[in-house]
Design a protein that fits this description.
Helix content is 16%, strand content 32%. By secondary structure, it is an alpha/beta fold. It has a single domain, classed as Purple Acid Phosphatase, chain A, domain 2. The strands form two sheets. Strands 4-3-2-1-10-11 form a six-stranded mixed β-sheet. The chain starts with a strand and ends with a strand.
Length: 157
């Protein structure tokens, strides 16, 4: 399954729209947002995805009640743990909040640093899509992970 990954959108609606169009064109089966939506109105753009999605709160998500409400419960505190396409997945905003030595998930999705990175370790893949919002670095990025190949790629929007 192809999994779309974004993080740190920080209310940049035009970049969120580009990400949604990108994930729809890539025919992702699921999308994860690793936090820092900021305001609930950002979530409305994610409802245009052709696939299911979920997300976790980031450190800049102050209006958690509104985010939970507008997302219809699809956004909550991390870590989010679930299985998709036979792959155990964990999603968190800040990877420093996980004990990686004890973590058993094969795919770990995180954000917070605004730096895109893919880390291949024996038995697991760690993916930070960088910042979709592009405010900090001037570069808007997302990632797509493939659970069959246990690989991922960073894309610039």
């Amino acid at each position: 399954m192809k999994i779309g990954i974004l993080s740190d959108t920080h209310d940049n609606l035009s970049q969120v729209e580009k990400a949604v169009i990108f994930f729809n064109r890539k025919k992702t089966g699921f999308v994860f947002h690793a936090g820092d939506f900021v305001a609930p109105f950002t979530v409305l753009r994610l409802k245009e995805l052709f696939c299911p999605w979920q997300g976790v709160f980031g450190n800049n998500d102050g209006e958690k009640k509104g985010l939970r409400l507008v997302s219809e419960g699809k956004i909550g505190p991390g870590p989010l743990r679930l299985s998709a396409a036979g792959t155990d997945i964990v999603v968190v905003h800040d990877i420093q909040t996980l004990d990686l030595k004890k973590e058993k998930a094969r795919l770990i999705i995180f954000g917070h640093s605004h730096k895109p990175e893919i880390i291949n370790e024996p038995g697991r893949l760690l993916v930070n899509p960088g910042e979709c919002g592009g405010w900090l670095t001037g570069r808007s990025t997302v990632a797509v992970a493939d659970t069959e190949k246990m690989s991922a790629r960073i894309f610039t929007l």
